[in-house]
Amino acid sequence: MYTLEEVKNYCKLCQKCDLYKNRTNVVFGEGNVKADIMFIGEGPGYNEDIQGRPFVGVAGQLLTKMIKAINLDRKDVYITNIVKCRPPNNRNPFEKESEKCIEYLRWQVKLINPKIIVCLGAVSGRNIISPNFRVTMDRGKWFKKGTFNIIATFHPAAILRDKSKKKPAWDDFKSIKAKYNELT
Ligand code: URA
């Protein structure tokens, strides 16, 4: 068994895939290490790579607002990504990159042991819920794996690109809040 700090230190030295070659910083994740809710995005973008923190760009600001809208704060939850290094030009991570990186996420989930996991977008849903996950069909549904209650919603960047996703994403956040109230 490792501590979260140990896993982070290993991760910071990681060279298991080529994404390390272009990174400024590893973006391991941040927030409450005893969080009841964990948000999992896709991978760091430009700002995240520079700052070494997840969801700090425009999409991150929207995520922060949505978390506040359900009366929580970034400090209450834990936020991380499927891959910890920025894919070039924000492309989706390749499967072989996600497969190698997900070991770190498994440790994070095991050590933080959240009650609720929120997948942000299709890449996260495919890696966490099922390879057949389709965001338009499967968002807003609750899945149970072991003790984890898992839901996926639209990625905040997708909401920014397409305003029609705002209402369904807000419905998902209300469902997350209801589940949180039920479980805590
Ligand atoms: N998009 C993501 O999926 N993750 C981040 O950390 C930032 C943007």
Automatic annotation (TrEMBL):
* UniProt enzyme class: hydrolase
* Uracil-DNA glycosylase-like domain mapped to chain residues: 28-174
Record-level GO BP terms: DNA repair
- Alphabetical UniProt keywords: 4Fe-4S, DNA damage, DNA repair, Hydrolase, Iron, Iron-sulfur, Metal-binding
Q: What is its EC number?
A: 3.2.2.27
Family stated for the protein in its record: Belongs to the uracil-DNA glycosylase (UDG) superfamily. Type 4 (UDGa) family.
Q: Does the keyword Metal-binding apply?
A: yes
Q: Which InterPro entries match?
A: UDG_Type-4/5, Ura-DNA_glyco_family4, Uracil-DNA_glycosylase-like, Uracil-DNA_glycosylase-like_sf
Q: Lineage of the source organism?
A: Bacteria, Bacillati, Bacillota, Tissierellia, Tissierellales
| UniProt key word Manganese | no
Question: Which reaction is the catalytic activity of this chain?
Answer: Hydrolyzes single-stranded DNA or mismatched double-stranded DNA and polynucleotides, releasing free uracil
Protein name, entry field: Type-4 uracil-DNA glycosylase
